[in-house]
Amino acid sequence: MSKFSLDVLNRCVHPFINNNDPDVVLGAVFGEDVALTRINEGLLVSHIDPIVGAVKNIGSLAVHVACNDVATSGTPPRWILLLVLVPQKEDEKLLTEIMSDIGRAADEIGVTIIGGHTGYSANLSRPLVAVTALGTIYDQESVRTKGARVCDHIFVTKGIALEGTAILANDFADIALQAGLNDQDLLDANQLMDGISIVPEALLLARHGATAMHDVTRGGLLETLLEISQLSGLGILVHAERIPILPVVSRFSRAFQFDPLKMLSSGTLVATIPPEKVEEAQKYLNEKSIPYADIGQMVEGNDVQIVQDGQITKYQEIHCEEDELARMWEIYRK
After folding, report:
1. Do residues 227 and 212 touch, judged by C-beta distance below 8 A?
2. 326 confidence band (pLDDT: 50, 70, 90)
């Protein structure tokens, strides 16, 4: 599954979304992870995400991905609503597996399933799961994608291309082995799913100075940085050698010929941290044993500049429709 391009969204989607409700604090804005709606003395934080680019662990992925987005606002997710569709009426075993995954992930995060819909459609070739995650904010400011400031440091947690690599190991294992990877590679990649939640680090960094946060999903780290740049009205300077790429991700990248910078990576959080808060943020990340890297800074400008071997490559155009996992599905699962 890929997103529509920003041009298509601007022509076919956004013109039909009107916000005339004064209680909508943040509505449909490209690049922002959540909607914010005023309730009593606080805010309701909400987000919806579908998962169709995976089969194994699809229920767990769907829960974590939606809850990750709520956490980027600086508050923990509390409730989730489900949409679960399987291809055939007879797919009761598959439905049970998906719901078991969902229940386990909900328990891990500490969210409550409050409703939803399950069904089947013969038009589907594989299951579809969509999760709406909800949370509340009281007595604090929400963190938004647009909040980055000049000189803020850019933190990236865990590594990049995590989710995409894990999905390739799960759903493309036969192709991985044909491409020269081995059973240990598959095991190492599968284990990346254990770190798919960014809730702990998002809540920690929100408490210790983060001005902007964005989880790394479709389009990978590059798309995430472009969205932070565009919404914040600033440029970004990144040092390529600082970008954390795990060895197993590098092996899969070579075998499948994908660009880690553009690969789906739930489990990765990008946060901008003011210079005066960097040591504090580092201290608490280290105390919680959360891996991270400081890959660059926010600068004046309007593009993302990646420095590698003394050369600077500049990126400015939003291409949310480009994602390496979607390309893998097109190549290997026709």
Report:
1. no
2. confident
Given a cut of 90, whether residue 70 has pLDDT beyond it is yes
Find where tokens 């780290």 sit: 221
Residue by residue, DSSP assigns 83-150 as EEEES-TTTHHHHHHHHHHHHHHHHHHT-EEEEEEEEE-TT-SS-EEEEEEEEEE-SSPPP-GGG--T
Residue 334 has pLDDT above 60, yes or no: no
Task: Return the amino acid letter for 76.
Answer: P
Domain 145-332 class in CATH: alpha beta
Mean pLDDT of the 179-191 span: 95
Can you tell me the distance from the alpha carbon of 33 to that of 19, in angstroms, rounded to the nearest whole number? 17
* pTM of the predicted model as reported, rounded to 2 decimal places: 0.91
Q: Radius of gyration (Cα) for the chain, nearest Å?
A: 19
At 271, the amino acid letter reads A
Q: Where in the chain are the domains? A: 6-137, 145-332
**Residue with tokens 């565009």, as numbered in its chain:** 230
- Beta bridge pairs of residue 292: 157
* Percent of the chain that is helix, strand, coil (3-state, to 5): 40, 25, 35
Phi, psi of 30 (to 5 degrees): -60, 130
Torsion 182-188-193-194 (CA) sign: positive
How far apart are the C-alpha atoms of 221 and 212, rounded to whole Å? Answer: 15
Q: Which CATH fold would you assign to the domain 6-137?
A: 60s Ribosomal Protein L30; Chain: A; (3.30.1330)
Residue 297 has phi, psi (to 5 degrees) of -145, 160
How far apart CA 262 and CA 322 sit, in angstroms, is: 8
Question: For 231-246, how does the pLDDT look when each residue is reduced to its tens digit (9 = 90+)?
Answer: 999 999 999 999 999 9
Which residues, in sequence order, are CB contacts of 11 under 8 Å at separation 6+? Answer: none
Could you report the per-residue pLDDT of 256-282, keeping only the tens digit for each?
Answer: 999 999 998 999 999 999 999 999 999
